[in-house]
TrEMBL record:
This is Glycosyltransferase family 4 protein. InterPro entries: Glyco_trans_4-like_N, Glycosyltransferase_grp1. GO terms for molecular function: hexosyltransferase activity. It comes from the Bacteria. Residues 16-178 form the Glycosyltransferase subfamily 4-like N-terminal domain. Keywords: Transferase. The lineage of its organism: Bacteria, Pseudomonadati, Myxococcota, Myxococcia, Myxococcales.
Amino acid sequence: MSVRVAMVTALFPPSVGGIQTHTLRLSQKLAARGAKVAVLTRHHAGLPAREWLDGVEVLRLGQGDAPRALATGTYLSGCLAELARRRASLDVVHAHQLLSPTSVGLAARALLGLPLIVNPHACGAIGDVAQTGRLRLEATRRLASGFVCISSPIRQELEEAGVAPERLWSVPNGVDLETFRPATPEERASLRASLGLAPEGPLVVYAGRLAPEKGPDVLLSAWARVHRAVPSARLAILGDGALLGALREAAAREGLGASVLFTGPVRDVPAWLRAADVFALPSRTEGLPVALLEGMAAGLVCVATRVGGTPEVLENGRHGRLVAPERPEALAEGLVEALTRPEARAWGTAARERVEARYSLDAVADRTLELYEQVMRRAGARAQTGQVRWG
């Protein structure tokens, strides 16, 4: 019998971000393996209330554009009503983030008896454990059937919060190795032409939200130093967000306009990565960054900050460069090295091999199915003894 899962996430495409990307691609991989997946996410104006994406049913619920309290309340009630309606055809709820999706899962666990998997995505001061309330954290610790730990720091935070080790599963984020792959010289030249880029000269790419926690302001500060050292280099900043206006102003003020391209949101991130030479990740905090996995899968030389789960993915001096966060001068030094050091090209090859060995989305989907099946077996055993909750 195929697994029937409700994937509950407040963040989902077409909005952009690592959680959105991972949830969609994981759901599609699970569906390709025979699982029946329904994604319950927030509704926003202009989006269909229900659609199918490569075998995945997507339901958009609530009033996502309303004031925060109303948006959250209508999302929670809409999700719970949908889960209750589908109770007989569901095996497990997989909630992403220890926020409103977990509140949905807790209600479904307590009222409907559905097994609950909780999947935190961030750690540190603005991470899931730190941001959730004490009561919700305690309820989650007691009621959740299992936890997905995408990185060691998240696992450690959950252990410190009192979650039993046997309910913690190490399942990293993953990357589609076919979609994100290195380009041949001919493909790279063709991609640059199609994107309107110069055929020659090194290209550094940043892909992500333009939000403070992602550190694009640190990258732009570093770029002034990089531009002086490597005048032919260009920086493409892919994405949108609250910092876009300030970043444009800073680039103009520093005289960097000709060397920095702000693309806004882009649909074909793989094309930009395959056209590039170096990938930059200047984050102040991370769980396990999907964007970094994508850059590594594309065979790029990667320069990233030493935060969250990033050091687990990228080994300094072997797959790229790790630098301290909030240090533009250190980031600039790493980028200049990646752009000018001949042996740095080998880091990109090693990075591709690293994600092939450890972060394939196919392997992540298989591991996730194993978790679902174990949780379902435990739930069945407990139902036979009259137990509903985890202690």
